[in-house]
Specification:
The protein is α+β, with helices and mostly antiparallel strands. The chain folds into two domains: 90 residues, wza like domain (wza like fold), CATH 3.30.1950.10; 81 residues, Outer membrane lipoprotein wza domain like (Outer membrane lipoprotein wza fold like, Roll). 16% of the residues lie in helices and 35% in strands. It has a five-stranded mixed β-sheet, with helices on one face. Strands 4-3-7 form a three-stranded antiparallel β-sheet. A hairpin with a 2-residue loop joins strand 3 and strand 4. The termini are far apart.
């Protein structure tokens, strides 16, 4: 088994490890191949509309699907042309699953992720808060159906093991704001 690196050089686990967790997003580059079919090997970009195109398969809605689900769908479509096709899909570059941490943290910025990531983990990726941060006023900005909403996060409660439900799993595009 091999591992791939994304454009920032982050090591990505094999596609088999990602199959149950990683959700494909626009901007991702997938390495798709069909066993014993050399003409069916390509790096495929997931378009901004969330779709991808592959020979004999046509257009596939990929956004939000796991690698395993996408592999199954492409395999089914290829069965019309190839008996018992074996499709392999690996994440070659992450272009879509990213969260942002801004404000009074040690290393604000954009962070790619391949596995579910919660607020505390995102703060850790950003090196933790500075001593001037208002930890109980943290907000997660999330866009749902084009509308922006703010989700409050009180670090002190989570740190003490209370109100753990506010330590939500982040979605691609979320921004953690540490005032």
């Amino acid at each position: 088994m091999s591992a791939h690196a994304d454009e920032a050089g982050a090591r990505l686990p094999d596609s088999l490890a990602l199959a149950d967790e990683y959700r494909v997003q626009p901007g991702d580059v997938l390495e798709v191949s069909v066993w014993k079919e050399q003409e069916l090997e390509a790096d495929v970009l997931v378009r901004s509309d969330g779709g991808l195109s592959f020979p004999l398969v046509g257009d596939v809605a990929a956004r939000g699907k796991t690698i395993g689900t996408l592999r199954g769908e492409m395999t089914e479509r290829l069965k019309r042309y190839i008996p018992n096709p074996v499709v392999s899909i690996a994440v070659k570059a992450i272009g879509g699953n990213r969260i942002y941490v801004i404000g009074k943290v040690q290393r604000p910025g954009e962070f790619p992720f391949v596995r579910p990531l919660d607020v505390m983990q995102a703060l850790s990726l950003a090196g933790g808060a500075t001593s001037f941060a208002a930890l109980n006023d943290i907000v997660i900005l999330r866009r749902d159906d084009g509308r922006l909403r703010a989700i409050p996060f009180r670090y002190g409660e989570v740190e003490r093991g209370r109100e753990l439900t506010q330590n939500i799993v982040l979605q691609s595009g979320d921004t953690v704001v540490v005032p």
